Amino acid sequence: MSVKRRKAETSGETNGVSSEEKDSNLVIEPQRSNTSSWNSFYKKMAFILCIYLLVPAFASQLPFIAKQFLYLSLVKSPLHSDFEKPETLNMSGTRNVRIGTLPPDDDIQLGLWQILPQSSQIGSSIEQDHQFDSALSDGKPVIIYLHGNAGTRAASHRLLLYKLLAGMDFHVIAPDYRGFGDSSGWPSAEGVVGDAESAYRWAKERSKHAPIYVWGHSMGSGIGSAMVKKLCQSGSCPEGLILEAPYNSMQDAMRNHLFTMPWWILPGSLSLISLAYEQEEAMFDSQENLKEVNCPVLILHAEDDFVVPYKLGKQLYEFSVENRDKSLPPVTFHSFGYVGYGHRHIVDSPDLSGVIRDFMK
């Protein structure tokens, strides 16, 4: 209970106010109850929980919403990025490019960044598009970076990797898939793999005989493995494939993700979710894709990755060693310990540049 004293016109015995009169100026007011606010909170939480538990049931009936749970292309990070001016994000020696898709689709344009090697940036007068195009044919390695879900090519952890690779004197090509960043359209399994191939073909056309490596992170590892499999089948295999924080299969990735784990205790949830992501599960199945990738493969995974658990990257490696044709180039696994790199920050490892150079020898 709270006590509130009304302001008296006069105070104290010296002003002729008796103690009884003082007491009469005291008003007892009840405290507001918090019960109603707690009830409201519990109702909201119950509603959110119900929606969450019903997602598997409606996933196949509402494909757009289901796809957003996977791709998260509507999550813009950072919120306000001027892709036309990468220098505002402290990305020097970088230009923004708009390219078409494979197969051609007049309604979709993809945005990508071309980042010059460090040696080409120092004292450079490269500013025009034709100069950037010509720079790709200088013989230095080219990295096609395929990011994971959520955010754009301008996300902070991705910028750190571009700068590391450019500092190693590599060219970097960083596209956004359809529906991400400034790329038009909506993501689909076939669409994003085609977008990755579009970026590869665009770079290949300009780089002549320079070695090209494909780097896929998280969901981008599934996209990358699918795209490189397709390239190798067509006789245009890249120099190598680098998979950072990869999973062995989409189904195992979803089963082990903290957000989706509770669904698996509900009978039938796994089959319902699989219906919604049937195309993605088939195309992003890295362990099956790597059977037909005839270039060297490097797998990078941090032991303290709790988004795509370390064990899934290890399983991908072990499956590949056991099931790939022995005549194919090797698959190499490099582990990063419990040092805080997690899912996004292997780039912070002082060993990373050496691991990449060893792989490229």
The coarse overall form would be globular
Strands side by side in the biggest sheet: 3-4-6-5-7-8-9-10
Question: What is the CA-atom radius of gyration, in angstroms?
Answer: 28 Å
Tally of separate helices? 14
The computed structural class is alpha/beta
Q: Tell me about the largest β-sheet.
A: 8 strands, mixed
- Detail the poorly predicted runs: 1-17, 19-24
Distance between the termini: 77 Å
How many extended strands?
Answer: 10
* Amount of beta strand: 5-15%
Q: Report helical residue fraction.
A: 25-40%
Reading the helices and strands in chain order gives EHEHHEEHHEHEHEHEHHHHEHEH
**Mean pLDDT, all residues:** 86
How is this structure best described in words?
The structure is a single chain. The chain has 14 helices and ten strands. It has about 350 residues and is of the alpha/beta class. Strands 3-4-6-5-7-8-9-10 form an eight-stranded mixed beta sheet, with helices on both faces. Strands 1-2 form a two-stranded antiparallel ribbon. β9 (about 295-300), α13 and β10 form a beta-alpha-beta unit. The chain starts with a strand and ends with a helix.
